[in-house]
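hey m, so remember when u said the tokens were messed up on ur end? i reran from scratch. heres the input so u can diff it against urs
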Amino acid sequence: MDSTLLALLALGLGVAIGAGIAAMIVAAMRARTAAEQQASSELPDGLTDVLAAMDDAACAVDPSGLVTAASTAAGRFGIGIGATLENPELRQLVRAVREGGSETATLRLARGGRSLDPRLVAARASRIGPRLSLLIIRDITEQERLEQMRTDFVANTSHELKTPVGAVSLLAEAIESAADDPAQVRAFASRIQAEAARLGQLTGRIMSLSRLQSSDGLGRFGPVAIDEVIAASVESHAVQASSAGVELTRGGDRGAWVQGDAQILIEAVGNLIANAIVYSPRGSRVGVGVRVDDGVVEISVSDQGIGIEEADRDRIFERFYRADEARSRRTGGTGLGLSIVKHATQRHGGEVRLWSRPGRGSTFTMRLPQIAAPEIEDDPGARKKPAKDKSKNKKKRKARKASRLAAPPVISTDQPRTDSGELV
């Protein structure tokens, strides 16, 4: 055989063998890379930055349930980097997405790893790598609570309105049947007036509460003098306190200002004073005090009444909730006063605190952000008084001097009053 042909055959065979070996090497490298990827738990680029910017609780989890990355909010549920998911429902949700896709579930999750204060959450798991899954936990407890409150509000309002409306209807029938008895007619008419007043008060409170809860229900805020708010609230309930035999006192700091709506604040403080009077025994005191502390104005209303049981303190600000149902019915309470106080304070950027001891009394404190007192500008357009005739003024001064010399001296018997800074 020709040597040239043999050389060509050898060259072709070498090329084929080399190509096969190269293909085997490439295939092996690809298999090795795929195996490394399957076994790798390295986070995708940018995932850490995305988790750091999230408000919801989120984390990256490997097949064993180990958390390799987490958002700051995940710590509220006891989820941290290097820890293992302890909740079996979350682990099951992560396992369900190993083959791809995503899964969602709604479940109760203990916050901070404790069995107390379970939160309703919407959890979603998605696969983001061969060995990693992304778990996002959104707390929907507040959303559920608001929805439940909306449902309860409609139901409770309907129930509360039925009572006075039904009473008016029955009393109207009673008047019709007792038309020949003037005494009975007057008695039934008086009761109708009372029920109508109660109905009017209830609807007014409902409208006030709805206005506070609506996003556009408040007018423009401006500087409000707390002294004027306290004075108006105390004055409007002076008759109620006198009728109940309760002493109404005022004390504390003066000259505090807040940003808000004066009428809403007067109504809120008035509700606290009215409740304190209703639940105080005759001969006791109700104190209204103001304290300014580190940029916060505290308006406290204290009584020496029956106090509030610990079981009722968490619900005392709910709509239509009454700690003492019998007393509220007897005094015509609507169960909305404290709810209005809470929402009014929150709309002014503050909070309400409660201290109470059964048999010793209660203290409700509205805490509002303080502002600097506004500057009072002089009116530049004010006109000066015209100059008077000096000769006429001189004669008038002489006449007034003569009258004072002729009149006996007047001695004032009024004693100056001092405001007590001590809160009841």
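this time it looks ok to me. The first helix runs from residue 3 to 39. if urs says something different then somethings off w ur setup not the seq
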